[in-house]
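Renewal narrative, Specific Aim 1. Our central claim is that a sequence can be written position by position from structural information alone. The example that follows is taken directly from our test logs and has not been curated for this report. It begins with the structure tokens describing the chain, in the order in which they were read.
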């Protein structure tokens, strides 16, 4: 096992005002990168390995690599950029699995939204759960190996440039559930008795989190399930075998068949039941529906967008039978079946939308709380996903929806 003696984690340097078309550093960012080339070795000593979030599909930013390029050049070191920003767990596994990193010093440049997760993945104690501020570029998180497969965290302000402060990230004394959620081990929520996923659908890309009660299954089906996950990881065979007819994409990534790997299925491959009638020349039959309600993994979502995701899940689950669609005058017909609520890694947004939908649809007027629904889905997803804690921002969005839209959620929710 490769346990580095020190790991220096820093956010990439400053970005430009327009980030929609510019994935590079700003002028100040390049200046900070140049200063870091001297600051890091002068402050922390010899640096043996350098990692940065790579550039690729769903990981377009060049800023992490640019931040450590002057350092790598000065030290004549390779930048390990083979791991994309959402593959930080793979990076941690790689480091732990190679003896060459034992007793070394590693510098890592990454997006700030993942620094907490990376730090936790290394087994670090007492990691703050308050979000890393969007305007903070001047911190180094130093992880020191404790000798027992854990690390201790020290936050070190860089104080390199004009405007840098000595602020560090601290948690408030009292926490809301959304803040506590970041430190909870889902296994502890249920005293180690994690609920068993409904149905028999083992797949690393998705988790079956709910079986629709028979009374609510639309006419034409005998059973129906709801999944959460990263459906772009699924093969068409998995889509077919799990009778998935609809995918609700609640992430902000591109929504198309190629991205989700769900082409309109080949009838020679897909053996789901055929239409009970012949198609006319102007009619079409689609075995999969793709719908998009884009949410950000922060608290910056418009509340109506989150409500739209809940209502879209309702619509997709209640697709009428094809015979009823034809009777209703449709010319494009869609298959009935199971629903996947998809987000980038199958975590925060999909789990939150699923919890809101289930609470709205089945539990608003019962003594089962939204917290219980939310925690149950988190526990189920825990076994399949590395992204098991919904971020504080999307959690807070959920509470705002619950407290705002009385028509959907008539019971006021307390944090």
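The sequence written for that structure reads:
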């Amino acid at each position: 096992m490769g346990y580095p003696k020190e790991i220096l984690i820093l956010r990439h340097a400053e970005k430009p005002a327009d980030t929609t078309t510019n994935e590079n550093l700003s002028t100040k960012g390049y200046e900070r990168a140049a200063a870091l080339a001297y600051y890091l070795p002068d402050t922390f000593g010899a640096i043996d390995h350098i990692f940065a979030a790579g550039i690729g599909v769903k990981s377009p930013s060049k800023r992490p690599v640019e931040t450590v390029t002057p350092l790598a050049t000065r030290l004549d070191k390779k930048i390990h950029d083979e791991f994309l920003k959402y593959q930080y767990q793979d990076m941690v596994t790689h480091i732990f699995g190679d003896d060459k990193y034992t007793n070394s010093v590693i510098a890592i440049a990454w997006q700030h939204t993942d620094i907490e997760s990376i730090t936790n993945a290394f087994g670090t104690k007492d990691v703050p759960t308050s979000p890393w501020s969007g305007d903070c570029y001047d911190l180094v998180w130093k992880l020191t190996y404790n000798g027992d497969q854990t690390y201790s965290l020290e936050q070190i302000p860089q104080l390199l440039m004009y405007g840098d402060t000595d602020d560090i990230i601290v948690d408030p004394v009292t926490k809301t559930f959304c803040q506590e959620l970041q430190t909870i081990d889902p296994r502890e929520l249920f005293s180690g008795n994690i609920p068993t996923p409904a149905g028999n659908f083992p797949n690393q890309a998705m988790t079956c989190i709910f079986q629709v009660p028979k009374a609510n299954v639309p006419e034409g089906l005998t059973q129906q399930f709801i999944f959460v996950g990263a459906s772009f990881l699924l093969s068409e065979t998995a889509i077919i075998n799990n009778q998935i007819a609809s995918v609700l994409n609640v992430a902000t990534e591109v929504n198309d068949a190629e991205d989700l790997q769900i082409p309109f299925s080949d009838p020679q491959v897909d053996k789901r039941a055929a239409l009970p009638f012949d198609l006319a020349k102007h009619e079409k039959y689609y075995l999969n529906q793709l719908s998009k309600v884009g949410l950000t993994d922060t608290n910056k979502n418009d509340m109506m967008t989150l409500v739209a995701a809940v209502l879209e899940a309702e619509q997709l689950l209640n697709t009428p039978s094809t015979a009823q669609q034809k009777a209703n005058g449709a010319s494009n017909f869609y298959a009935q079946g199971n629903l996947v609520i998809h987000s980038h890694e199958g975590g925060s947004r999909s789990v939150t939308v699923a919890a809101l939908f289930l609470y709205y649809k089945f539990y608003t007027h019962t003594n089962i709380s939204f917290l219980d629904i939310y925690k149950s889905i988190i526990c189920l997803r825990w076994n399949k996903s590395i992204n098991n804690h919904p971020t504080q921002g999307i959690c807070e969005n959920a509470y705002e929806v619950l407290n705002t839209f009385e028509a959907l959620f008539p019971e006021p929710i307390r944090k």
